Amino acid sequence: xxxxxxxxxxxxxxxxxxxxxxxxxxxxxxxxxxxxxxxxxxxxxxxxxxxxxxxxxxxxxxxxxxxxxxxxxxxxxxxxxxxxxxxxxxxxxxxxxxxxxxxxxxxxxxxxxxxxxxxxxxxxxxxxxxxxx
Length: 133
Description:
Blueprint: H1 5-22, H2 34-53, H3 57-87, H4 89-125
Helix pairs in contact: 1-2, 1-3, 2-3, 2-4, 3-4
């Protein structure tokens, strides 16, 4: 199992940007589709991490999982801080429990995206052999 820190960083940034732009990470934004955006950010962030890692599907899945999980943890901690300051301690604790479930949910599409990205990168690097028969 190989971990590529550059791949994790790129996947982290992709997942973070898609999550913020999508509205699911902005508190009080009124987003009605956070699961779709969270899944999309995990899938694309994981795909990017797996593709940049170029270690094949299994290590791509690991890099994708790490990238999307770290992204979800950072966003969760930011939302916990905002929720605690804005609403009080009880709302912050409730938000904490909810968002840790979100971290796990973000990791699954990251694994799938990382495996797909690793397969695509692995396939592109293999030389195409032509049979002469």
